[in-house]
Write a structure and sequence with these properties.
By secondary structure, the protein is α+β, with helices and mostly antiparallel strands. The chain contains 16 helices and 15 strands. The strands form 3 sheets. The protein has a 7-stranded mixed beta sheet. Strands 8, 9, 10, 11, 12 and 13 form a 6-stranded mixed beta sheet that branches. A two-stranded antiparallel sheet has the order 14-15.
Length: 483
């Protein structure tokens, strides 16, 4: 087939540059995209600084990377400057050649880039959307609003300056406290986001991030510094993808202060699931990718998935680098590993950090409560009549005790429990099982043992029935008193 050329359909500069503002970035993902460029340029130190000054507020990201000469800077400022199908270096976190522009324009109307390559002069170029709209031309400016920014680059590196922050501060005046507080809160969100997204780079000392003159600490979502330490599964590799699961310790084992401190910006519940990395850079945090749902009992499960930039198209990476869809063959493995991690999380969560479950290791185990499904498909909770204490009570006064048990079963305060759990899970989750039984519990077990023996039950069977029931089963020490 032979093509016949017709007209050249150049896009309108005004409409195109404004469309670049709508790629769905927020301030945190936009700044992270600029940090990606710094890492790709071999930077070891990256600084994020900002200043509140009403509509004259600014944010800049500076690095000590390779920098650019004039030709390279113009190319970097040109939309679509790189072929997304080009082979990338292993440390290159870019893909589409659009991040600098789309991330910047999503937050500001004036983007200035200052750069210096070793043995070259410092150069600067600026996109001003108001100017492009006025002239309707793809015209870069040799402009910087304040010469002081030029001095921020010494031997080599790049500084990205955002001004006219219309998406963040608009036309607010300096004394507008509401917008000022919102601006500072947004920057704190950025700080948290960067500490998570680049935690592997910070931990491995590949980069140092200075946030408003303060060294940024890494937030590792797998909480490897906790005591007791999270359970770590075997690392599994499928092509260029490495997968490993982590099961966090039960909340009751770490205490309230650490529980609140390690919950991250959204808390333990929201941070469960897959953590998808591309070359150690976090793309997706705490998401089951449609494979599972977030549930309370799975909140201790977190799974690391790390792939190289060779797999970008297989994972359907977007321009913002904030979403990724696993290919079919990997999805099967993720499903399998997710089920293992969730099962382990459920065991630990439901048994409040106990190392073993009597229900699975002892066929004679008698819980105090049982659940059952009614004909209407509803879940109901019943007191176990086979529990040794309950069975003795029934034997003493069957009618009255049975009525009392039914009264309790029909009035389980589920709504109150759920309300407290939703309001503050700390009420329940931090309740720690004591390591030794109370004197009252020991006395109760001894009394129960004597009753069994008086009824002609053998010593060993009496001891077995008691030690197979809640809560005696949690304290093997009690068995020493039953003699």
């Amino acid at each position: 087939m032979e093509y016949k050329k017709a007209e050249i359909a150049n896009p309108s500069p005004k409409s195109t540059i404004n469309s670049y503002r709508s790629f769905g970035y927020n301030l945190s993902t936009a700044i992270a995209d600029i940090v990606d460029n710094s890492i790709s340029a071999n930077a070891t130190e990256i600084s994020i600084d900002y200043k509140w000054d009403g509509q004259h507020s600014f944010i800049f990201i500076a690095d000590n990377g390779d920098g650019m000469n004039c030709d390279e800077l113009v190319l970097a400022m040109t939309p679509g400057s790189k072929d997304p199908e080009e082979e990338r270096a292993a440390n290159d976190l870019g893909r589409f050649g659009m991040g600098l522009k789309t991330a910047s324009f999503s937050q500001c109307k004036r983007l200035t880039c200052i750069s210096k390559r070793a043995d070259y002069a410092t150069v600067k170029r600026c996109w001003d959307i108001d100017f492009v709209n006025q002239e309707n031309e793809w015209c870069l400016l040799d402009f910087v609003s304040d010469e002081i920014f030029l001095s921020k680059i010494e031997n080599s590196g790049t500084l990205v300056l955002w001004e006219k922050l219309d998406r963040i501060v608009g036309h607010a005046k300096t004394d507008n406290e509401s917008v000022k507080n919102a601006f500072y809160q947004e920057m704190m969100n950025v700080k948290q986001h960067l500490s998570l997204v680049f935690h592997k780079f910070i931990e491995n000392k590949r980069i140092t991030i200075i946030f408003q003159n303060e060294k940024l600490e890494a937030y590792n979502p797998f909480l490897l510094n906790l005591e007791p330490k999270p359970e770590m599964g075997q690392s599994e590799t499928f092509g260029n993808v490495e997968i490993i699961y982590f099961i966090l310790p039960h909340m009751s084992e770490i205490g309230k202060e650490k529980y609140e401190k390690t919950g991250g910006s959204l808390g333990w519940f929201q941070h469960q699931g897959f953590y998808v990395y591309r070359g150690d850079r976090l793309l997706v945090a705490g998401d089951w990718l449609g494979i599972e749902k977030k549930r309370d009992y799975s909140k201790l499960a977190r799974i690391s998935v790390n792939f190289t930039n060779e797999n970008d198209f297989n994972w359907q990476l977007d321009i913002k680098k904030s979403t990724a869809t696993p290919p079919i063959e990997i999805r099967r493995e993720l499903t399998r590993i997710a089920k293992i991690a969730i099962m382990k999380s459920a065991q630990r969560y439901n048994w409040r950090g106990q190392k073993t479950s009597s229900e699975t290791t002892n066929p004679n185990f008698e819980p105090l409560w049982k659940d059952e499904i009614t004909r209407e498909g509803l879940k109901k909770y019943k007191i176990n009549r086979k529990h040794p204490i309950i069975s003795l009570l029934i034997a003493e006064n069957s009618k009255l005790v049975n009525k009392a048990l039914k009264l309790l079963e029909n009035n389980v305060p589920i709504e109150l429990i759920l309300s407290n759990q939703n309001e503050d899970p700390v009420y329940h989750e931090l309740e720690k099982q004591p390591e030794t039984p109370s004197d009252e519990l020991i006395a109760l077990a001894v009394e129960l043992y004597k009753i069994y023996v008086s009824q002609g039950i053998t010593d060993s069977l009496a001891r077995q029935q008691i030690m197979s029931a809640t809560p005696f089963n949690l304290f093997p020490l009690i068995s020493n008193y039953l003699k």
